[in-house]
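EI: anyone free to look at a 98-residue chain?
SC: sure, send it
EI:
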Amino acid sequence: MMIKEGIEQVVLCHPKDNVATAKSVLRRGTLLELPGGRKVEAREEIPFAHKMALRKISRGEAVIKYGERIGKATRAIEPGEWVHIHNVRGERGKGSKK
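SC: here you go
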């Protein structure tokens, strides 16, 4: 079952971001229509205030929020997947990473 929702269900902080933050629990199958007509369907339940991938993020690729790198994917993350500590190594507040 697909649940059609708009971008108002998530916080998209910057156009460069590859993740968005859920304003409420996003049920599996929720379809978000993003700016530019892109659509992303939640592949699993995304908890309130947690991140969802907006596009494929390859293993080792930067996770971008606020237009800035906040971590690195520890495995490939598909669009619509929950993005959290099980698939990202955080880097914010850990000093300079080159």
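EI: The mean pLDDT is 89.
SC: 👍
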